[in-house]
Amino acid sequence: MSFSLDVRLSKPNKTYRQGELVSGTISVNTPSDCKHDGIGLSLEGTISLQLDNKNILLDTFSSSLKPVQIALASFEMVKPGRFPAGTTEIPFEVKLQPLNGKVLYETYHGVYITIQYMIKVEMKRSVLNRDLLKGIEFVVEVPESYDGSNDKPKVFNITPESLRNVAETGRLPKFCIKGQLDSTAFVITKPMTGELTVERCDITIKSIELQLCRVETCGAGEGFAKEATEIQNIQIGEGDVCRNFPIPIHMVFPRLFTCPTLTTNSFKIGFELNLIVIFEDDHLVMETFDIQLVRPK
């Protein structure tokens, strides 16, 4: 049995809100009596912004996009001494609260923006032995007031004439796809719902897909860089679907990779839904909908 350091959280879902106690256990496992120079624990919350290396604005922003700390609390859990052979467990609890002048945001893992909260434990050891470091991520939820003002169905009617960025609509096959999203503001813990109907299409349909995208905007006073990237893609219709038959729209928002729509002075996190119809010749048409994600109190 080798020397090991571990940390566990009390909540199985590892989800907390501001003001709650983040509690758990530090576990030290050693095959024999051992000396240490103390154990420290810290709670850290950081926002990391990163631009694509191909972005021409990267050099301008580089000095402004350093990780921002929004939560930090450090404690000495065990003073220098010795651990007996076997397993020693040390309970801990830390109140989740922001630094003065800062605000907690929801946990989010994007491509260019990451909001992350960690419990880190470090055991100091002698010069001849490396210090041991162990960390565990936990999830922060931030409910907000929502008046339901955007909770209205979004009706759509996709035809060759309704498409944007098409030079010659006369070369497109004739089609008409109607439907609705049940809202443009969705509660993040509930699925996105709606339906669509292919009323007419003069060419064989190969697939109908829903693509959820994150739209991340980050920068500083010098300007902003905006990028849209895919989160997930699901197929709701395969092959030449029946005409005039309602097809349900149902998508669950993935944890960690989505969060309530967020706007701050230095970054923004938004979301889009792309409805994609792929024809048998692999040409496709796409309709984009801006959607809002909310977590009501």
TrEMBL record:
**Matches recorded under InterPro entries:** Arrestin-like_C, Ig_E-set, Vps26-related
One biological process term in Gene Ontology: intracellular protein transport
Give the residues annotated as coiled coil: none
Q: Which Pfam families match?
A: Vps26
> What family name appears in the similarity comment?
Belongs to the VPS26 family.
Name by which UniProt lists this protein: Down syndrome critical region protein 3
Organism this protein belongs to: Hypsibius exemplaris (Freshwater tardigrade)
